[in-house]
Amino acid sequence: MCLLIFRPKKVIYYLICKIRAYYLTKKYIDGGGGKIQLAVPFIPVKIKKSKGAKLILNGNLKICSHFEGREAIVIKMSSNSKFELLSDFIIGNGVQIALLANSILVIGGKENESESGITAHTIIMVYRRIEIGKDFLCAWNVFITDSDWHYIKGQNHQADVKIGDHVWVANNNNILKGSIIGNNSIVASNSKIINKTFPENVLIAGLSPKIIKSNIEWSRDLV
Predict the structure, then answer these.
(1) Count of domains in the chain?
(2) What angle do CA 148, 86, 110 make, to 5 degrees?
(3) Is residue 220 part of a domain?
(4) What's the pLDDT at 8?
(5) pLDDT band at 38, cuts 50/70/90?
(6) Tell me: the pLDDT tens digits for 131-178?
(7) How far apart are CA 43 and CA 92, in angstroms?
(8) Model confidence pLDDT, tens digit, residues 174-198
(9) Is the confidence at residue 1, as pLDDT, over 70?
């Protein structure tokens, strides 16, 4: 005979996640049919949208915590900016996303991999346009931006960033203005890419980034 054990704490946490997720979805999502989901009940989620900003979820945006981290997830959207998610995507504790006025951030979300997302403590700052493809995997402490965010004489501060489908960005990386990374590629830890274009299926590494290996294949899940 099976014993059904009632765990009131788990039930309460489940209800808190559901109620908070419903509130965040109703208040901040502008279309697409997707929802915000919470995997943990008390992690802070701060979303600030200025006039005309649009947050479109065509898939679900799941918010989780790694190693019981409690750092806030922050999404800040200035006037007339647009953040569009095309399929299911996960963001973890300490992830911060900021869009300047009239800027666009597009993230493809999950397609063939078991999950797609950003682990923790990563910053994305958009001045004009950043595009991230499907099945994107991003580890800890990554900085992605399309601008220098300061004036340098004789230098254009902004250039769009495009990260292709099925790209794995390892920890402690900088993906800066003008970066174009081809499909199915890997960016190794502690690399810095700026104003460079890389083809598909390559392993990229270094502060002066180079192709270390070509014709690579990778998967999120161990075989």
Answers:
(1) 1
(2) 100
(3) no
(4) 79
(5) very high
(6) 999 999 999 999 999 999 999 999 999 999 999 999 999 999 999 999
(7) 10
(8) 999 999 999 999 999 999 999 999 9
(9) no
Average pLDDT over residues 34-49: 97
DSSP code per residue over the chain:
-PPPPP-HHHHHHHHHHHHHHHHHHHHH--BSS--EEESSSS--EEEEE-TT-EEEESS-EEE--STT--PPEEEEE-TT-EEEE-S-EEE-TT-EEEE-TT-EEEEEE-SSSS--EE-SS-EEEESSEEEEEET-EE-SS-EEESB-SS-BTTB--B--EEE-SS-EE-SS-EE-TT-EE-TT-EE-TT-EE-S-EE-SSEEEETTTTEEEEES----SS--
Residue 210 domain-assigned?
Answer: no
Domain assignment of residue 2, yes or no: no
- Whether residue 184 lies inside any domain: the answer is no
* Segments forming the whole domain that contains residue 125: 8-148+160-175
**Which residues are paired to 155 by β-bridges?**
152
Confidence at 212, pLDDT banded by 50, 70, 90: very high
Per this entry, what is the length of the chain? 223
